[in-house]
Amino acid sequence: MDWLTDPNAWIGLLTLTALEIVLGIDNIIFIAILSSKVLPADQPKTRRLGLLGAFVTRLLLLVSIAWIVRLTRPLFEVLGRGE
Question: Which of 49, 54, 55, 58 has a CB 3.0–4.6 Å from the CB of 27, allowing a cystine?
């Protein structure tokens, strides 16, 4: 529980939160631009599908990072080195 009082942990959390907000806004703008190129009747469905894809991708990346952080042994060796 040392991270509760560690200012570096809070700064890291705030930095990651700000990055997630910026990347989320970027996703929304990108999806809005791309969905404007499809037929008007299909635009709401296209936006929902794009946002769902971005959300699922971000969750999968977060889960994979959490898995990598918990590794205690080398996953593979390259040229006989796995330290």
Answer: 54
Q: Is residue 21, in this structure, part of any structural domain at all?
A: yes
Rounded CA gap, 34 and 48, in Å? 12
* Domain membership flag for residue 50: yes
Residue 27 in any domain: the answer is: yes
> DSSP label at 13?
H
Give the total number of structural domains in the chain. 1
What separation in angstroms does the CA of 46 have from each of 43, 50, 65? 5, 6, 28
Query: What pLDDT, on a 0 to 100 scale, did the predictor assign at position 80?
Result: 78
pLDDT in tens, 7-56: 888 898 899 899 989 988 998 999 999 999 999 999 999 999 999 998 89
